[in-house]
Design a protein that fits this description.
237 residues, alpha/beta, Rossmann fold, 9-stranded mixed beta sheet, 24% helix, binds zinc ion
């Protein structure tokens, strides 16, 4: 399995973020998902081809996307390529503020807006589908002392599965871990992960990311887009 972790990276190369994440957000996410069954590439928006050459995208089995303020800088051409590869079977995981990322919005078909509050408040992340593969080994409630609050209503289509619900000290709730299928591809959106909190160093959050990648992996990505063939009848008409 090949995992590609994409991060817009802008506004993260500073002392404050490095004091929280010594290896950066990208490094923390990479360390959470790597394993003997996987190779991991990390890329940035500022890399050539916005981090995703055709060659890299074509070898990516699961794409992880963290983005915050540079959504509009991602080219529509790249979004179309990602969308097409998901339909062929690539898994994709959108993290935190990637709810407004162009590839996520293209796959959802809705505005993907939500309410938010940056007050470093406690989040209780409730596992509401304990039998789901993404929740394997995750306790019923994961407490994150400091997170950005994301609040319903979250303008997404009704999820195929809701695995986690977040409760915030300020009183709001949020569908924090939801899954979809689009074409042959599996999609997981996961809310925790504001850049100024050490969320991706939490062992339970890392377990969720690790599980999510394995769940989203499809060993049989189609070589071509699905077609609309005119079919002969199986029985004489
Ligand atoms: Zn945030």
């Amino acid at each position: 399995m090949h995992i590609t972790v994409w991060n817009e990276y802008k506004h993260q190369d500073n002392e404050y973020i490095h004091s929280i994440y010594p290896d950066g957000l990208l490094g923390a996410i990479q360390q959470a998902v790597e394993g003997k069954d996987a190779t991991v590439t990390t890329v940035k928006l500022t890399d050539p081809h916005q981090g995703l050459t055709d060659e890299l995208l074509e070898k990516t089995d699961v794409l992880i996307w963290w983005a915050h303020v540079c959504h509009d800088e991602v080219s529509d051409e790249l979004v179309a390529k990602i969308h097409a590869r998901v339909l062929r079977g690539m898994g994709v995981i959108f993290l935190h503020s990637a709810h407004l990322a162009k590839p996520f919005k293209a796959l959802m078909g809705t505005g993907c807006t939500l309410g938010w509050r940056e007050a470093a408040e406690r989040e209780r992340l409730w596992t509401i589908a304990p039998a789901h593969p993404i929740a394997k080994g995750v306790p019923p409630c994961v407490v994150l002392e400091h997170e950005e609050a994301y609040c319903e209503p979250f303008d997404i289509p009704e999820p195929d599965e809701t695995v986690f619900i977040g409760w915030f000290k300020g009183g709001n709730v949020f569908r924090s871990g939801v899954t979809y299928r689009r074409g042959r591809g599996k999609i997981f959106y996961f809310q925790p992960g504001h850049e100024s909190h050490p969320t991706y160093l939490d062992p339970n959050i890392r377990k969720i990311l690790y599980n999510a990648v394995r769940w989203a992996y499809n060993p049989e990505i189609a070589e071509k887009p699905a077609e609309c063939p005119c079919l002969p009848p199986d029985e004489q008409l």
